[in-house]
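A reminder from the course coordinator: this example appears on the midterm review sheet, so study it carefully.

Given structure:
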């Protein structure tokens, strides 16, 4: 068994921390990796009481929930209904300037390789689009602290809040990450190949961003032929159709896009947004 002989990559510790949000938050705080202020509540009543310690808070269920699910934004004095008695993470709301992420890969020998960080735009807790490169804001340093502390092997995606030029960790993903999909089009090596090389102990290479690149998710709508044709009229695009059954806000595919400058890239992404989500224009 891989677990018995120590060859499970990424290791079990990094996966166990993701089973419940409060375990991840406590781990980050204990080891000095900056996160927003938070409390752990054992039930919904305690969560509401603790949330009033902040002028505004985000209450998150500890188990389950992702892409904005299981999260409640609350102002002091409000009394929303929280479903069921369970463990909650009560976070101070951070009026961040923007969100960003970094894809990092760590080998069995402990060498870390970083992809260029990306700016992220989220809609109701779900990544809508992102684009690289972004400035670092200390993300590499915090990523290395986490990967080394966990003795991690493989690719990890780490999401950050950026406020006044500094970064704090929102959460990490012990796997390839949605915000790194653009590396398939814009980088010398994709996050997927990086992960396989690290896990199998194959030689790694320093990832290089070959062009400005980004990604927009296709949420909740079928990727039909008409949509594909309109997307492909935008130069530098590549469509990934997941073949999933459509449901509201489900990730059904994404579009990678490349450009010669950040300005051109953002223009293309916003054009794709108008094509994919005309109802929001």
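Designed residues:
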């Amino acid at each position: 068994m891989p677990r018995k002989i120590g060859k499970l990559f990424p290791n079990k510790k990094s996966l166990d921390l993701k089973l419940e949000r409060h375990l991840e938050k406590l781990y980050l705080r204990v080891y000095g990796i900056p996160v927003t202020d938070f409390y752990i509540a054992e039930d919904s009543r305690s969560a509401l009481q603790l949330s009033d310690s902040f002028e505004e808070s985000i209450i998150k269920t500890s188990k389950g929930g992702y892409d904005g699910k299981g999260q409640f934004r609350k102002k002091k004095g409000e009394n929303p209904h929280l479903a069921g008695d369970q463990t909650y993470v009560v976070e101070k709301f951070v009026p961040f300037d923007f969100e960003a992420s970094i894809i990092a890969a760590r080998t069995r020998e402990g060498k870390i390789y970083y992809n260029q960080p990306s700016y992220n735009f989220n809609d109701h807790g779900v990544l809508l689009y992102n684009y690289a490169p972004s400035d670092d804001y200390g993300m590499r340093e915090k990523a290395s602290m986490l990967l080394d502390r966990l003795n991690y092997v493989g690719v990890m995606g780490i999401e950050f809040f950026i406020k006044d030029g500094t970064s704090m960790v929102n959460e990490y993903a012990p796997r390839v990450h949605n915000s790194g999909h653009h590396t398939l089009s814009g980088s010398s090596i994709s996050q997927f190949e990086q992960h396989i090389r690290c896990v199998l102990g194959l030689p790694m290479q320093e990832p290089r961003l070959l062009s400005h690149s980004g990604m927009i998710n296709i949420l909740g709508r079928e990727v039909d032929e008409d949509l594909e044709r309109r997307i492909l009229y935008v130069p530098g695009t590549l469509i990934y159709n997941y073949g999933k059954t459509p449901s509201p806000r489900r990730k059904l595919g994404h579009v990678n896009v490349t450009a010669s400058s950040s300005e051109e890239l953002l223009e293309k992404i916003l054009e794709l947004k108008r094509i994919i989500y005309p109802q929001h224009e």
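Residues 262-276 form the longest helix (15 residues). The CA atoms of residues 103 and 157 lie 5 Å apart.
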